[in-house]
Amino acid sequence: MIRQKIKEVIEKAVESTFGKINLPNFEIETPKKDSFGDYATNIAFVLKNTVGLSPIEIAERLTTELLKEKDLFEKVEFVKPGFINFWVSPRYYFENLLKAIEEKDDYGRVDIGKGKRVLVEFVSANPTGPLHIGHGRGAAYGDSLARVLAFTGYSVTKEYYINDKGTQMDILGESVYLRAKELKGEKIDFPEDFYKGAYIYDIAKKVLTEHPNLLELEKDKAIVICREIAIKTILEDIRSDLERFRVVYDNWYSEKSLYERAKVDELINLLQQRGLIYEKEGALWFKSSAFGDEKDRVLIRSNGEYTYFAGDIAYHYEKFVDRGFELAINLWGADHHGYVKRLKGALKALGLNPEALEVILIQMVNLIEGGELKSMSTRQGEFVELKELLDKVGVDATRYIFLSRSSDSPLDFDIDLAQKQSQENPVYYVQYAHARICSIFEKAKEQGLEKIDWEMVDFSVLSSEEEIALAKKIEEFKEVVVSASRFFAPYKLTYYLLDLAKQFHEFYTKHRVLSEDKELSLARLGLCLGCKVVLKNGLNLLGVNAPERM
């Protein structure tokens, strides 16, 4: 990574010029104007108190030393009041280009995780209905983040937490039961807060097929049957949609299993032993206000029901203590923002590090088609299903667009744009760059240019502005991957790939890759191949295909 390389060279220059000193943190920045070089540093300002010289004097002396790095820098200048500007030698970018060609699928891989065990829990939608597009955004983000973390040296486990216990499951069972009665010709009074989607009728038909005598059974028993079949059917549908969306989990973790294994009772006993539970009005309360929450929270209601919070604390305690994860990343809907503080407080109360839990909030998706904004409501059955969107625009476009914004920004998904086969559509534009490069290599093969020894290619013949810019952009890939990993921000890759594709298309428009000049043709083929490697690796981290033909 060029920034890291420049930092190391500066540290070496400081030691050569001023001896071994305790070096403060300093910045390597990209100047706003090209006239100030490729990179700049403020090292002279942070050193002024340490070495007792003015920033401009420090900058001048360091520049003299840095100019010796001829393989790295084409030019180094200091400017008032003390900044040092660097122009990186194209030679450095060409050496990196060769690395990209040789490392292929591993180019960009870096071990910053050192095998740290990470659990990424995402989607975890209640099994009360099909996945909608909001779940889809969380699915794309969580899966891509897991790919990025694994690519950067973390040991990653992907998990779906099944909320298969509680009031919502009871309402689901009753919703199906009432629709079954309706299908048998009975008049029903359907409550406003029950689930109304067409899928409830489909499940009711399935229940009646499997249990023709359902309505002859005792009501409570019939509702249990409806509930269990509904949960199973909806989970199968969810799993199918996610697999189609290229999201495959390592674990499907049942909330109900926590209760069956008495994990929630164990958790409450542990809190009681710590003096953090008290009884009031027949309910058991957790002293969460002592750990940053705005008020204390009920864990067991006066009627004996456990709250969702009780199960959630037990689930997260098990993540860290029983299963040994060092970092737990949860992707939740933005409407859960108030829940973060209380859960972190519970971890603190249990003697765990609350910073080991990272919660990423996913903002809503606004679906636009023909200029019309579509609304969503699971209970009213007005949601737009993920599978419906995939049918219209495909997996690649859906994933890429879902990942094109930071998770904390609402996303407008324009279906008409996603269906376009033009440079206006970002995923088409990026994929077309990859396909175009594949086409170039097919033509090269026809001309006898294959089985090339890339180490023997002279890349120094690449001298145009577009060629140097493309080689530089290819070198930036590893830095973008590291940033996406450190900040849990896979969307950074979508911006980068769009820029890379733009620079490739500009290069391709202005320069003929295959020409009479064999030496230049080979160098340009190498540049194209390096670009192809990065496009493929970057798209793979997003879970998007890199087609060879379009």
Structure description:
The chain has about 550 residues and is of the alpha/beta class. Among the domains are: about 1-90, Arginyl tRNA synthetase N-terminal domain (Gyrase A, domain 2, 2-Layer Sandwich), CATH 3.30.1360; about 95-110 and about 420-540, Isoleucyl-tRNA Synthetase, Domain 1; about 165-235, no CATH class. It contains 20 helices and 15 strands. It has helices at about 1-20, 45-50, 55-65, 90-105, 135-150, 165-185, 200-210, 220-245, 255-260, 265-275, 310-320, 340-350, 385-395, 395-400, 415-420, 425-445, 465-475, 475-485, 490-510, 520-540, and strands at about 30, 40, 75-80, 85-90, 115-120, 155-160, 250-255, 275-280, 285, 295-300, 325-335, 355-360, 365-370, 370-375, 410-415. The strands form 4 sheets. It has a 5-stranded parallel sheet with strand order 7-6-5-11-12, sandwiched between helices. A 4-stranded antiparallel sheet has the order 1-2-4-3. A 3-stranded antiparallel sheet has the order 8-9-10. Helix 6 crosses helix 7, helix 16 packs antiparallel against helix 20 (about 520-540) and helix 17 runs parallel beside helix 20 (about 520-540). It is globular and about 90 Å long. The model has no long low-confidence stretch (mean pLDDT about 95).
